[in-house]
Design a protein that fits this description.
mainly beta; 4-stranded antiparallel sheet; 11 strands
Amino acid sequence: QVHLVESGGGLVQAGDSLRLSCAASGLTFSSWNMAWFRQAPGKGRTSVADITWSGGSTYHADSVKGRFTISRDNAKNTVYLQMNSLEPEDTAVYYCAAQITGTKTYPYWGQGTQVTVSS
């Protein structure tokens, strides 16, 4: 059974940093592209960043480019999201997801971790 477990969320002030982690089990982690999404209150879920199975290619949404960085450690079956210069607009529940390589299909999701940024 596949499990994705996020951690590292919390309440911070604008300008602070957080690092989210997503620990995966039950799948061959190094074979999966991974992604971070977020869902703000009253809004739909949006893509934040993704990373290929090898870590050789990444994507960051324009809204977080230059502030957030996705990375992974295949030896630890973990994907990270380093979030710097946080803004109140970053307040959301953050989810990690496993992506079938070459598709936009995400069959596995974590339960989410809350990030709240106060002004």
